[in-house]
Amino acid sequence: MVAKIGRGQNLTGVLSYNQLKVEKEKAEVLFTHKILETPDGHYSIHQMFRSFEPYLLANRKTEKAVLHISINPNPKDNVSDEKFNVIAEEYMQKMGYGEQPFVVFKHTDIERTHIHIVSVCVDEQGRKISDSYERMRSMDICRDLEKKYGLIVARENEQQQNNKTFAPVDYKANDLKSHVASVVRYLPKYYHFQSLGEYNALLSLFNITVEEVKGELHGKPKNGLVYFALNENGAKGSNPFKASLFGKTAGHQHLQNHFEESKVVLKQNDTRLSIKGTIETALKTTTDEQDFKKQLAEKGINVVVLRNDTGRIYGITFIDHNSKTVWNGSRLGKEFSANVFNEWWNKGLKPEVRNSEDTETIINKPVSESLPAEKTHDLFNFLSNHSPVHSDDSHSSIEGFGGLLPESQGEDYQEQDFANKMKKKKKRKRGQ
């Protein structure tokens, strides 16, 4: 059994993610603690939020007060609802969160049934609950619960490798190559994108970029790809990694084939219309860039914006983690092109959606001059405070979406990395 601990600022995003699963009958509220009850036994995002709100209002200075934990038994374990409830309660109690309000969601959308726990890590007086040695304690608690309830013991080597995929890479990490490899090997298997630009937008969520290189080999033209990790400024922060280091799926030819396959797949389904409708709603109901991105984030859509040195928007891409599709704005329609959003966010001409007989068109109208001037954002401007690339409207794209990116079957990599460092320190002390 593996517990993944995430922290963030966006409680609404985490609740929305789990509640969306409930509405799609892919999850259910299994257990609640100190949460307002309802006459019919059903829960809403607003109602659950009210139970946490006093703690957040009392919060003194904890930046990331929202707690989102997933507990993942081995797929071969047959865990009943009653046992999940007991495991969740015992885990929270032993971790020091037993007196906190929390909601336990059971997810059944993938083969591995598992639970998500949403809570807050500040008490009623707004004081942060200690997280000292949290990951080590979590590992020990999981081992104890496995023994107590007869669950299969997690194998550390598989857990560590699987979980590397699901967090932005740190360009300073010692094993950076393996972190980059786990991302670039995974994404083309599950996400549909039709160009290198759309692929780069997706990679940017993990602090990675890819470039095409051209040359000659034995007198014949040769195309290839090189990958880089990005630093906190959105610039290249590592030496280049040749695609061949990561296998054929990360290479030029495989991606060209993937682009063509994605074009066929996306042409045959109605994903495009659904995403357009969601974006149009956001255009109608939001007032600025931050609000626009936040609303789409709550629907599981990342917005990646590219700006040049003068702040002009020259690219915008929408990444829908529900359908696992990536769309350049112009590919969705000229009304979603980079120029439309540049006119809005840099010149104050907000797009207005107007109904016509067959479809909807978008025009620009002036925005009140009282609105503050828009800041120039980083190169890869997206909602993520897991990433070292900061933006002024940062919400966690992983925590904020509650984990809409693929779920890990393994142990938290940072948890295991901390354990390894502690072991090394003990060895050094013995040797002294």
Give a written overview of the molecule.
- The structure is a single chain.
- The chain is α+β, with helices and mostly antiparallel strands and 432 residues long.
- The protein has three domains: 2-163 and 409-421, BirA Bifunctional Protein, domain 2, CATH 3.30.930.30; 168-267, no CATH class; 271-366, no CATH class.
- The chain is 38% helix and 21% strand.
- The chain has helices at 11-23, 45-58, 81-94, 134-148, 156-163, 176-190, 196-204, 252-267, 271-285, 289-298, 329-332, 338-347, 413-431, and strands spanning 2-8, 27-33, 66-72, 102-107, 114-120, 208-217, 220-229, 241-242, 301-307, 313-320, 325-328, 349-355, 360-366.
- Strands 1-3-5-4-2 form a five-stranded antiparallel β-sheet, with helices on both faces. It has a three-stranded antiparallel β-sheet with strand order 6-7-8. A three-stranded antiparallel β-sheet has the order 9-10-11, with helices on both faces.
- Strand 12 and strand 13 form a beta hairpin.
- Helix 9 crosses helix 10.
- The radius of gyration is 23 Å and the shape is globular.
- The model is unreliable at 157-165, 356-360 and 367-419 (pLDDT under 50).
- Residues 391-432 are annotated as: Disordered.
- Residues 421-432 have a biased composition (Basic residues).
